[in-house]
Design goal:
Blueprint (H helix, E strand, L loop, with lengths): L2 H27 L2 H19 L8 H26 L6 H17 L10 H23 L9 H32 L4 H7 L1 H36 L9 H14 L6 E8 L2 H8 L1 H19 L4 E6 L2 E7 L3 H16 L7 E7 L5 H17 L5 E3 L4 E2 L3
Parallel strand pairs: 4-5
Antiparallel strand pairs: 1-3, 1-4, 2-3, 5-6
Helix pairs in contact: 1-2, 1-8, 2-3, 2-8, 3-4, 3-5, 4-5, 5-6, 6-7, 6-8, 7-8, 10-11, 11-12
Length: about 375
């Protein structure tokens, strides 16, 4: 087949794949990854169609735009791979390579040369495809790997990582030969010409699309799991997930000499909401959640019990000091905004019974409130002022 026929065939196949992928995968999952792949397919299709007027007066504009859209499509693949790891791509990073390739192509010789800006285009494609392979390789290595459907997800990740890496290496070789001998040399036309590239892309399109379907469903499952276990406002564990995680950590023996549950309550929170509005209340909740994270780091768990109450699991030794540290950090922010004070109730986890410790910490919190608020009370022990 001639190059134009192959490009038309590629466009038809890609349009069919895009329609099927959008209808079957994206509309059912709404995952970021499937959205990026739909955008990538659409850009690749548009770019391929813009090469069809080569040899006509229209190529002066169509060819540079085709280069730019192809690079932007590769950028969307990279952004999709990053989305699997929860790493967003700044818009400037996504647009910059395409803009650079567009400018270089327009400044080269788009009137007479169908390969205008070819070196910049091939280098950008190699870089972005390589970036996708790196992101996917990190997932294969186990970073942020979804727990559900491990084998299916692992196979899909390996497939797309290998495909992305192969395409990247192909474009590296293509760019090197392009610079060394030029696009009119027989070696380049045979191994790296438009016909070879279109056939390779068409074959990889099917492999990558079906692998991406598995990853899109995995991403949707992961997002649904997060929504089911996290508090929307603060991002902390919700009550049920906190209790599950706490039971798991206590049973694992991570806390050695023992663990303690802390319940924190923002004093007179309703007064703050009524007097300054719900925005002020939300600020107080998110500020306190951030204070907890900064104080305990990876040494414990933090969850939102509900309303203005928070749950923490920390080592029993030094639990009061942990409450003091949280209060100290929180008070620094309270100096800049009308934030309520905090009361804490503490209870040692008896015989790995987290639920009982929560009940006892709640009793201690009630005593702290009754004693005047802004203080810490340990279950069955004297109170100690901390905040």
């Amino acid at each position: 087949m001639d190059t134009a026929t192959l490009r038309v065939a590629f466009g038809l196949v890609a349009v069919c794949v895009l329609i099927l992928f959008y209808g079957v995968t994206y509309r059912s999952t709404r995952s970021a990854y499937s959205g990026w792949w739909c955008a990538s397919l659409g850009l690749f299709i548009a770019g391929a169609l813009l090469y069809l007027p080569n040899g006509t007066p229209v190529q002066v504009v169509a060819n540079p735009l085709g280069n730019a859209l192809g690079v932007l499509g590769a950028g969307c693949m990279w952004a999709g791979a990053r989305s699997l790891r929860g790493r967003p791509v700044p818009r400037a990073w996504l647009l910059l390579p395409a803009v650079v390739v567009l400018v270089v192509s327009l400044l080269d010789d788009p009137v007479h040369d169908v390969w205008t800006g070819g070196a910049a285009y091939l280098a950008a494609m190699a870089l972005l495809m390589g970036g996708s392979a790196v992101e996917l390789r990190a997932m294969v290595a186990g970073e942020n790997l979804p727990e559900d459907d491990q084998h299916q997800v692992h196979f899909a990740l390996v497939s797309i990582a290998v495909a992305s890496g192969a395409i990247s290496l192909f474009y590296v070789a293509r760019a090197a030969v392009f610079v060394a001998v030029g696009p009119d040399h027989g070696a380049f036309r045979t191994a790296f010409g438009s016909q070879a590239v279109t056939l390779l892309t068409m074959l990889l399109l099917v492999l990558v699309t079906f692998s991406m379907s598995a990853l899109s469903h995995a991403q949707q499952t992961s997002e649904l799991r997060i929504r089911a276990t996290r508090d929307d406002l603060t991002g902390l564990l919700n009550r049920s997930e906190f209790l599950r995680e706490a039971e798991r950590e206590v049973r694992s023996g991570r806390y050695g000499a023992g663990a303690a549950v802390l319940i924190a309550d923002l004093d007179r929170f309703k007064t703050l909401n009524d007097g300054f509005g719900h925005a002020a209340g939300d600020l107080a909740l998110t500020t306190f959640a951030d204070s907890c994270h900064r104080a305990i780091g990876s040494r414990g768990l933090v969850g939102r019990l509900g309303g203005d109450e928070f749950l923490l699991l920390v080592p029993d030794a030094g639990a009061e000091e942990t409450a003091e540290e949280i209060g100290r950090i929180y008070q620094l922010d309270a100096a800049r905004a009308p934030l309520p004070t905090v009361s804490f109730g503490i209870a040692t986890v008896p015989q790995r019974d987290v639920a009982l410790a929560v009940e006892r910490a709640d009793e201690a919190l009630y005593r702290a409130k009754a004693a005047g608020r802004a203080r810490t009370v340990r279950h069955s022990e004297p109170e100690r002022r901390t905040a």
